[in-house]
Amino acid sequence: MEVALDLHAHSIFAGGTQGLKISSEVQGENRKKAVSHLEKINQTMPLKGIDLIGTGDCQFSFWTDILKDVLIEDSSGIFIFQQKADVRFILQTEMIFTARIGKISKETHVIFLFPNFSSIDTFRDFLNQWEVKHQKMARPFIICESPVQVAKRIHTIMDIDPLIEAIPAHIMTPQGVFGTGKGNLRVNYLTDFFGSVTSRIKIFETGLSADPEFLSLIPELDDHVLISNSDAHSSSLHRMGREYTVLSVPKFDYPGIISALRNNRILYTAEFPPEEGRFFLTGHRAGRKRPGLHGDDEYCCFSPQFVPVNDICPICKKPLTIGVFQRCIEISQIQGAERRIGEIQPKKKFIRMVPLIEILAHVLNVKTKTAKSLITTYRQITSLMGPERNLWQSSAEEVEGKLIDHLDTPIIEAILKIKEGDFTFHPYGFDGIYGTLVIGQKGNYSKVNIIKSSQPIQKTL
Ligand SMILES: [Zn+2]
Ligand SMILES: [Zn+2]
Hints:
This protein has 13 helices and 18 strands. The protein is an alpha/beta fold. It folds into two domains: 2-273, TIM Barrel, CATH 3.20.20; 353-421, no CATH class.
Protein backbone atom coordinates (compact mmCIF):
# COMPACT_ATOMS: atom_id res chain seq x y z
CA MET A 1 0.00 0.00 0.00
CA GLU A 2 0.96 3.63 -0.57
CA VAL A 3 1.81 5.72 2.49
CA ALA A 4 2.83 9.40 2.64
CA LEU A 5 5.24 10.09 5.47
CA ASP A 6 6.84 13.01 7.17
CA LEU A 7 9.50 11.56 9.46
CA HIS A 8 11.02 14.74 10.84
CA ALA A 9 8.99 17.06 13.05
CA HIS A 10 9.41 18.70 16.44
CA SER A 11 7.27 18.99 19.52
CA ILE A 12 6.41 22.34 21.04
CA PHE A 13 9.46 21.93 23.29
CA ALA A 14 12.22 22.05 20.65
CA GLY A 15 14.19 25.20 19.95
CA GLY A 16 12.89 27.41 17.19
CA THR A 17 9.33 26.97 18.35
CA GLN A 18 7.36 28.54 21.14
CA GLY A 19 10.25 27.73 23.49
CA LEU A 20 8.15 26.60 26.43
CA LYS A 21 9.83 26.18 29.79
CA ILE A 22 9.33 23.08 31.90
CA SER A 23 9.35 24.53 35.39
CA SER A 24 6.91 22.73 37.70
CA GLU A 25 4.46 25.63 38.02
CA VAL A 26 3.87 25.76 34.27
CA GLN A 27 3.82 22.02 33.67
CA GLY A 28 0.03 21.75 33.73
CA GLU A 29 -0.32 24.61 31.27
CA ASN A 30 2.37 23.14 29.00
CA ARG A 31 0.72 19.76 29.05
CA LYS A 32 -2.47 21.36 27.76
CA LYS A 33 -0.53 23.10 24.98
CA ALA A 34 1.28 19.87 24.10
CA VAL A 35 -1.95 17.91 23.84
CA SER A 36 -3.59 20.63 21.76
CA HIS A 37 -0.51 20.47 19.44
CA LEU A 38 -1.33 16.79 18.83
CA GLU A 39 -5.00 17.67 18.30
CA LYS A 40 -3.99 20.26 15.72
CA ILE A 41 -1.78 17.75 13.89
CA ASN A 42 -4.73 15.38 13.85
CA GLN A 43 -6.80 18.04 12.10
CA THR A 44 -4.06 19.36 9.81
CA MET A 45 -2.43 16.27 8.35
CA PRO A 46 -5.56 14.89 6.63
CA LEU A 47 -5.81 18.24 4.79
CA LYS A 48 -2.22 17.81 3.63
CA GLY A 49 -2.69 14.14 2.72
CA ILE A 50 0.06 12.87 5.03
CA ASP A 51 -0.61 9.51 6.67
CA LEU A 52 2.26 9.23 9.12
CA ILE A 53 4.21 11.87 11.03
CA GLY A 54 7.11 11.80 13.47
CA THR A 55 6.33 12.76 17.07
CA GLY A 56 9.54 14.80 17.32
CA ASP A 57 11.68 14.95 20.48
CA CYS A 58 10.50 11.51 21.63
CA GLN A 59 13.27 11.14 24.27
CA PHE A 60 12.46 14.45 25.98
CA SER A 61 11.00 13.06 29.19
CA PHE A 62 8.22 15.61 29.70
CA TRP A 63 7.06 14.97 26.14
CA THR A 64 7.69 11.19 26.30
CA ASP A 65 5.40 10.96 29.33
CA ILE A 66 2.63 12.81 27.49
CA LEU A 67 3.08 10.59 24.43
CA LYS A 68 2.96 7.44 26.58
CA ASP A 69 -0.21 8.76 28.14
CA VAL A 70 -2.20 9.91 25.13
CA LEU A 71 -1.05 7.78 22.19
CA ILE A 72 -2.69 4.45 21.42
CA GLU A 73 -0.67 1.76 19.62
CA ASP A 74 -2.58 1.04 16.43
CA SER A 75 -0.21 -1.49 14.86
CA SER A 76 3.30 -2.51 15.95
CA GLY A 77 5.22 0.75 16.64
CA ILE A 78 2.59 2.98 14.97
CA PHE A 79 0.35 5.14 17.11
CA ILE A 80 -2.84 7.16 16.88
CA PHE A 81 -3.89 10.05 19.08
CA GLN A 82 -7.63 9.41 19.08
CA GLN A 83 -9.69 6.41 18.14
CA LYS A 84 -10.68 6.48 14.45
CA ALA A 85 -7.99 9.10 13.68
CA ASP A 86 -6.58 9.09 10.14
CA VAL A 87 -3.14 10.32 11.14
CA ARG A 88 -0.58 7.97 12.59
CA PHE A 89 2.52 8.77 14.63
CA ILE A 90 5.97 7.22 14.72
CA LEU A 91 8.42 7.72 17.61
CA GLN A 92 11.07 10.07 16.27
CA THR A 93 13.66 12.56 17.41
CA GLU A 94 16.58 14.64 16.14
CA MET A 95 19.90 14.79 17.98
CA ILE A 96 22.85 17.11 17.42
CA PHE A 97 26.25 15.40 17.23
CA THR A 98 29.38 17.50 17.48
CA ALA A 99 32.91 16.25 16.93
CA ARG A 100 36.33 17.75 16.57
CA ILE A 101 37.98 17.02 13.28
CA GLY A 102 41.53 18.33 13.43
CA LYS A 103 41.27 21.66 15.17
CA ILE A 104 37.77 22.48 14.07
CA SER A 105 34.48 21.20 15.36
CA LYS A 106 31.60 20.08 13.19
CA GLU A 107 27.93 19.86 14.10
CA THR A 108 25.60 17.39 12.40
CA HIS A 109 21.91 16.72 12.99
CA VAL A 110 20.67 13.13 12.89
CA ILE A 111 17.07 11.84 12.98
CA PHE A 112 16.34 8.64 14.92
CA LEU A 113 13.28 6.41 14.63
CA PHE A 114 12.34 4.06 17.48
CA PRO A 115 10.09 0.97 17.36
CA ASN A 116 8.76 1.30 20.94
CA PHE A 117 8.95 3.26 24.19
CA SER A 118 11.22 0.73 25.91
CA SER A 119 14.00 1.35 23.33
CA ILE A 120 13.65 5.08 24.09
CA ASP A 121 14.11 4.38 27.82
CA THR A 122 17.34 2.50 27.05
CA PHE A 123 18.45 5.32 24.75
CA ARG A 124 17.92 7.78 27.61
CA ASP A 125 20.10 5.62 29.88
CA PHE A 126 22.92 6.00 27.38
CA LEU A 127 22.34 9.76 27.19
CA ASN A 128 22.75 9.86 30.99
CA GLN A 129 25.98 7.86 30.74
CA TRP A 130 27.32 10.26 28.12
CA GLU A 131 26.31 13.23 30.28
CA VAL A 132 24.06 14.66 27.58
CA LYS A 133 21.86 17.49 28.88
CA HIS A 134 18.69 15.89 27.63
CA GLN A 135 16.52 16.80 30.60
CA LYS A 136 16.53 20.46 29.69
CA MET A 137 16.77 20.34 25.91
CA ALA A 138 14.32 18.64 23.59
CA ARG A 139 16.99 18.53 20.88
CA PRO A 140 20.18 17.98 22.86
CA PHE A 141 23.83 17.92 21.87
CA ILE A 142 25.80 14.67 21.98
CA ILE A 143 29.28 16.10 22.29
CA CYS A 144 31.93 13.74 20.90
CA GLU A 145 35.70 14.00 20.88
CA SER A 146 36.12 12.67 17.36
CA PRO A 147 34.41 10.90 14.45
CA VAL A 148 35.51 7.62 16.09
CA GLN A 149 33.37 8.49 19.10
CA VAL A 150 30.46 9.64 16.88
CA ALA A 151 30.53 6.22 15.21
CA LYS A 152 30.74 4.38 18.55
CA ARG A 153 27.76 6.21 19.93
CA ILE A 154 25.57 5.78 16.85
CA HIS A 155 26.52 2.06 16.82
CA THR A 156 25.47 1.90 20.48
CA ILE A 157 22.10 3.53 19.74
CA MET A 158 21.43 1.30 16.72
CA ASP A 159 22.41 -1.79 18.73
CA ILE A 160 19.58 -1.14 21.23
CA ASP A 161 17.15 -2.60 18.68
CA PRO A 162 17.76 -3.74 15.08
CA LEU A 163 14.76 -1.67 13.98
CA ILE A 164 16.17 1.67 15.15
CA GLU A 165 17.05 3.83 12.16
CA ALA A 166 19.56 6.71 12.02
CA ILE A 167 18.98 9.24 9.22
CA PRO A 168 21.33 12.23 8.77
CA ALA A 169 19.09 15.32 8.57
CA HIS A 170 19.11 18.16 5.99
CA ILE A 171 22.51 16.95 4.87
CA MET A 172 23.63 20.00 2.85
CA THR A 173 22.78 22.81 5.29
CA PRO A 174 25.37 24.19 7.74
CA GLN A 175 24.00 21.82 10.41
CA GLY A 176 23.97 18.83 8.05
CA VAL A 177 26.90 16.47 7.49
CA PHE A 178 27.96 17.98 4.14
CA GLY A 179 27.20 21.58 5.04
CA THR A 180 29.69 23.94 6.51
CA GLY A 181 28.90 25.73 9.70
CA LYS A 182 30.85 27.41 12.41
CA GLY A 183 34.56 27.63 11.78
CA ASN A 184 34.20 26.72 8.12
CA LEU A 185 34.91 23.00 8.45
CA ARG A 186 34.05 21.09 5.30
CA VAL A 187 33.25 17.39 5.44
CA ASN A 188 33.58 16.01 1.91
CA TYR A 189 33.07 12.30 2.53
CA LEU A 190 30.58 10.67 4.91
CA THR A 191 33.28 8.65 6.67
CA ASP A 192 35.05 11.89 7.68
CA PHE A 193 32.24 12.50 10.18
CA PHE A 194 30.47 9.17 10.66
CA GLY A 195 33.57 6.93 10.63
CA SER A 196 32.80 3.22 10.86
CA VAL A 197 29.04 3.68 11.26
CA THR A 198 28.84 5.06 7.69
CA SER A 199 28.19 1.55 6.36
CA ARG A 200 25.07 1.25 8.55
CA ILE A 201 23.59 4.56 7.42
CA LYS A 202 21.55 4.08 4.27
CA ILE A 203 18.89 6.77 4.38
CA PHE A 204 19.48 10.54 4.07
CA GLU A 205 17.16 13.51 4.34
CA THR A 206 17.37 15.98 1.43
CA GLY A 207 16.45 19.05 3.50
CA LEU A 208 14.40 21.98 2.25
CA SER A 209 17.31 23.65 0.40
CA ALA A 210 18.14 20.60 -1.73
CA ASP A 211 16.26 18.03 -3.78
CA PRO A 212 17.22 14.77 -5.53
CA GLU A 213 18.43 16.72 -8.58
CA PHE A 214 20.99 18.73 -6.60
CA LEU A 215 21.99 15.68 -4.56
CA SER A 216 22.56 13.64 -7.71
CA LEU A 217 25.69 15.75 -8.19
CA ILE A 218 27.26 13.79 -5.31
CA PRO A 219 28.52 10.30 -6.27
CA GLU A 220 28.62 9.03 -2.68
CA LEU A 221 24.83 9.33 -2.45
CA ASP A 222 24.09 7.42 -5.68
CA ASP A 223 23.22 4.14 -3.97
CA HIS A 224 21.56 5.61 -0.92
CA VAL A 225 17.92 6.26 -0.14
CA LEU A 226 16.77 9.88 -0.12
CA ILE A 227 13.73 10.95 1.85
CA SER A 228 12.06 14.32 2.35
CA ASN A 229 10.43 15.63 5.50
CA SER A 230 8.98 18.93 6.67
CA ASP A 231 11.26 19.50 9.71
CA ALA A 232 8.26 21.43 11.02
CA HIS A 233 8.58 23.24 14.32
CA SER A 234 4.91 24.13 14.43
CA SER A 235 1.60 22.59 13.45
CA SER A 236 0.77 25.40 10.99
CA LEU A 237 -0.45 24.43 7.53
CA HIS A 238 2.45 26.11 5.71
CA ARG A 239 5.06 24.28 7.78
CA MET A 240 3.69 20.75 8.14
CA GLY A 241 4.09 18.39 5.22
CA ARG A 242 5.95 21.01 3.15
CA GLU A 243 8.09 18.03 2.08
CA TYR A 244 7.17 14.37 2.34
CA THR A 245 7.98 10.90 1.05
CA VAL A 246 5.56 8.51 -0.60
CA LEU A 247 6.45 4.91 0.10
CA SER A 248 5.12 1.53 -0.98
CA VAL A 249 4.84 -0.53 2.20
CA PRO A 250 4.07 -4.23 2.57
CA LYS A 251 2.25 -3.56 5.86
CA PHE A 252 1.45 -0.30 7.64
CA ASP A 253 3.37 -0.97 10.82
CA TYR A 254 6.81 0.07 12.08
CA PRO A 255 8.70 -2.97 10.73
CA GLY A 256 6.89 -2.53 7.38
CA ILE A 257 7.88 1.15 7.16
CA ILE A 258 11.51 0.46 8.08
CA SER A 259 11.77 -2.44 5.65
CA ALA A 260 10.32 -0.30 2.81
CA LEU A 261 12.74 2.54 3.61
CA ARG A 262 15.79 0.27 3.81
CA ASN A 263 14.84 -1.40 0.55
CA ASN A 264 14.27 1.94 -1.21
CA ARG A 265 10.63 1.29 -1.99
CA ILE A 266 10.15 5.00 -2.46
CA LEU A 267 7.56 5.94 -5.06
CA TYR A 268 8.58 9.59 -5.00
CA THR A 269 9.48 12.48 -2.73
CA ALA A 270 7.63 15.80 -2.76
CA GLU A 271 10.05 18.71 -2.66
CA PHE A 272 9.87 22.25 -1.37
CA PRO A 273 11.68 24.45 -3.96
CA PRO A 274 15.40 24.30 -3.05
CA GLU A 275 15.78 27.91 -4.23
CA GLU A 276 13.35 28.97 -1.50
CA GLY A 277 15.23 27.02 1.19
CA ARG A 278 16.96 29.05 3.88
CA PHE A 279 20.44 27.92 2.85
CA PHE A 280 20.28 27.69 -0.95
CA LEU A 281 22.75 30.38 -2.06
CA THR A 282 25.90 31.60 -0.36
CA GLY A 283 25.62 35.00 1.25
CA HIS A 284 24.91 37.03 4.30
CA ARG A 285 21.75 38.65 5.49
CA ALA A 286 21.10 42.27 6.28
CA GLY A 287 21.01 43.55 9.82
CA ARG A 288 22.75 43.86 13.10
CA LYS A 289 25.36 41.19 12.56
CA ARG A 290 27.12 43.23 9.87
CA PRO A 291 27.40 46.76 11.22
CA GLY A 292 29.65 49.51 9.90
CA LEU A 293 30.25 48.95 6.23
CA HIS A 294 26.73 47.94 5.25
CA GLY A 295 23.45 49.76 5.57
CA ASP A 296 21.06 48.09 8.00
CA ASP A 297 19.02 46.60 5.16
CA GLU A 298 21.87 45.45 2.93
CA TYR A 299 22.56 41.85 2.08
CA CYS A 300 24.93 40.03 -0.30
CA CYS A 301 24.34 36.72 -2.05
CA PHE A 302 26.02 34.70 -4.78
CA SER A 303 25.59 31.74 -7.11
CA PRO A 304 28.52 29.30 -6.86
CA GLN A 305 30.44 30.73 -9.84
CA PHE A 306 30.38 34.24 -8.37
CA VAL A 307 31.24 33.46 -4.75
CA PRO A 308 34.06 35.83 -3.69
CA VAL A 309 37.53 34.50 -2.86
CA ASN A 310 37.74 32.55 0.42
CA ASP A 311 33.98 32.93 0.88
CA ILE A 312 34.51 36.37 2.37
CA CYS A 313 32.12 39.29 1.86
CA PRO A 314 33.98 41.85 -0.28
CA ILE A 315 32.48 44.72 1.72
CA CYS A 316 32.50 43.81 5.42
CA LYS A 317 35.18 41.10 5.05
CA LYS A 318 33.22 38.70 7.24
CA PRO A 319 32.69 35.04 6.25
CA LEU A 320 29.61 34.27 4.18
CA THR A 321 27.25 31.43 5.05
CA ILE A 322 27.96 28.75 2.47
CA GLY A 323 24.90 27.70 0.52
CA VAL A 324 23.72 24.23 -0.40
CA PHE A 325 24.16 24.86 -4.13
CA GLN A 326 27.85 25.73 -3.64
CA ARG A 327 28.46 22.69 -1.39
CA CYS A 328 26.83 20.30 -3.89
CA ILE A 329 29.19 21.52 -6.62
CA GLU A 330 32.29 21.46 -4.38
CA ILE A 331 31.66 17.94 -3.10
CA SER A 332 30.81 16.70 -6.58
CA GLN A 333 34.20 17.92 -7.84
CA ILE A 334 36.13 16.64 -4.83
CA GLN A 335 34.50 13.20 -5.25
CA GLY A 336 35.64 13.23 -8.88
CA ALA A 337 32.33 13.64 -10.69
CA GLU A 338 31.84 15.64 -13.84
CA ARG A 339 28.19 16.37 -13.27
CA ARG A 340 26.36 19.61 -13.82
CA ILE A 341 22.89 20.78 -12.84
CA GLY A 342 20.66 20.76 -15.89
CA GLU A 343 22.76 18.08 -17.60
CA ILE A 344 22.15 15.19 -15.22
CA GLN A 345 19.06 13.08 -15.06
CA PRO A 346 18.29 12.35 -11.40
CA LYS A 347 17.53 8.67 -10.83
CA LYS A 348 15.28 9.35 -7.87
CA LYS A 349 11.69 10.24 -8.66
CA PHE A 350 10.36 13.46 -7.17
CA ILE A 351 7.82 16.22 -7.66
CA ARG A 352 8.21 19.92 -6.94
CA MET A 353 5.61 22.02 -5.20
CA VAL A 354 5.12 25.23 -3.25
CA PRO A 355 3.02 25.05 -0.06
CA LEU A 356 -0.52 26.05 -1.04
CA ILE A 357 -0.79 28.48 1.89
CA GLU A 358 2.21 30.38 0.51
CA ILE A 359 0.61 30.67 -2.91
CA LEU A 360 -2.60 31.96 -1.35
CA ALA A 361 -0.69 34.44 0.85
CA HIS A 362 1.03 35.72 -2.28
CA VAL A 363 -2.11 36.08 -4.38
CA LEU A 364 -4.27 37.54 -1.62
CA ASN A 365 -1.42 39.73 -0.38
CA VAL A 366 -1.69 38.50 3.20
CA LYS A 367 1.49 38.66 5.29
CA THR A 368 0.58 36.30 8.14
CA LYS A 369 0.58 32.74 6.85
CA THR A 370 -1.73 31.60 9.63
CA ALA A 371 -4.40 34.25 8.79
CA LYS A 372 -7.99 33.04 8.94
CA SER A 373 -8.74 34.25 5.39
CA LEU A 374 -5.98 31.98 4.02
CA ILE A 375 -7.15 28.99 6.00
CA THR A 376 -10.74 29.47 4.79
CA THR A 377 -9.62 29.51 1.14
CA TYR A 378 -7.28 26.57 1.79
CA ARG A 379 -10.18 24.55 3.20
CA GLN A 380 -12.34 25.51 0.24
CA ILE A 381 -9.69 24.21 -2.17
CA THR A 382 -9.14 20.96 -0.27
CA SER A 383 -12.89 20.37 -0.08
CA LEU A 384 -12.92 20.53 -3.91
CA MET A 385 -9.62 18.77 -4.62
CA GLY A 386 -9.18 16.45 -1.66
CA PRO A 387 -5.94 16.77 0.35
CA GLU A 388 -3.26 19.22 -0.82
CA ARG A 389 -1.22 16.24 -2.01
CA ASN A 390 -3.79 15.74 -4.80
CA LEU A 391 -3.11 19.25 -6.09
CA TRP A 392 0.51 18.33 -6.87
CA GLN A 393 -0.22 14.81 -8.11
CA SER A 394 -3.03 15.83 -10.49
CA SER A 395 -2.62 17.27 -13.98
CA ALA A 396 -3.15 21.01 -14.62
CA GLU A 397 -6.37 20.18 -16.53
CA GLU A 398 -7.79 18.21 -13.62
CA VAL A 399 -6.99 20.99 -11.15
CA GLU A 400 -8.49 23.66 -13.38
CA GLY A 401 -11.61 21.55 -13.99
CA LYS A 402 -12.26 21.09 -10.28
CA LEU A 403 -11.60 24.67 -9.20
CA ILE A 404 -12.85 26.83 -12.09
CA ASP A 405 -16.46 27.29 -10.99
CA HIS A 406 -15.64 27.97 -7.36
CA LEU A 407 -12.56 30.18 -7.01
CA ASP A 408 -11.36 33.56 -8.20
CA THR A 409 -9.34 33.38 -11.42
CA PRO A 410 -6.09 34.83 -9.94
CA ILE A 411 -5.92 31.97 -7.42
CA ILE A 412 -6.39 29.30 -10.08
CA GLU A 413 -3.91 31.03 -12.39
CA ALA A 414 -1.30 31.18 -9.64
CA ILE A 415 -1.67 27.46 -8.83
CA LEU A 416 -1.38 26.55 -12.51
CA LYS A 417 1.70 28.74 -12.97
CA ILE A 418 3.37 27.00 -10.03
CA LYS A 419 2.51 23.63 -11.57
CA GLU A 420 4.06 24.76 -14.88
CA GLY A 421 7.23 25.96 -13.15
CA ASP A 422 6.48 29.58 -14.01
CA PHE A 423 7.79 31.07 -10.77
CA THR A 424 10.99 32.10 -9.07
CA PHE A 425 12.22 33.72 -5.88
CA HIS A 426 13.63 37.18 -5.39
CA PRO A 427 15.87 37.01 -3.61
CA TYR A 428 16.55 33.28 -3.43
CA GLY A 429 17.00 31.75 0.02
CA PHE A 430 20.35 32.36 1.76
CA ASP A 431 21.89 32.69 5.25
CA GLY A 432 18.87 31.38 7.13
CA ILE A 433 16.30 33.46 5.23
CA TYR A 434 13.63 31.86 3.06
CA GLY A 435 13.38 32.98 -0.57
CA THR A 436 10.54 35.35 -1.52
CA LEU A 437 8.07 33.88 -4.00
CA VAL A 438 7.51 35.59 -7.36
CA ILE A 439 4.84 34.00 -9.57
CA GLY A 440 4.75 34.48 -13.35
CA GLN A 441 8.48 35.01 -13.86
CA LYS A 442 11.39 32.67 -14.36
CA GLY A 443 14.75 33.22 -12.72
CA ASN A 444 18.25 31.84 -13.07
CA TYR A 445 19.77 30.80 -9.78
CA SER A 446 23.14 30.22 -11.46
CA LYS A 447 23.59 33.90 -12.32
CA VAL A 448 23.18 35.67 -8.98
CA ASN A 449 26.01 38.06 -8.18
CA ILE A 450 24.72 40.56 -5.65
CA ILE A 451 27.60 42.30 -3.92
CA LYS A 452 25.10 44.32 -1.97
CA SER A 453 21.45 45.06 -2.30
CA SER A 454 18.76 46.74 -0.32
CA GLN A 455 16.23 46.61 -3.11
CA PRO A 456 12.65 46.22 -1.99
CA ILE A 457 11.31 42.80 -2.84
CA GLN A 458 8.96 42.91 -5.83
CA LYS A 459 5.85 40.79 -5.81
CA THR A 460 4.38 40.10 -9.24
CA LEU A 461 1.79 37.74 -10.53
ZN1 LIG B 1 18.00 19.83 12.26
ZN1 LIG C 1 29.23 42.06 4.21
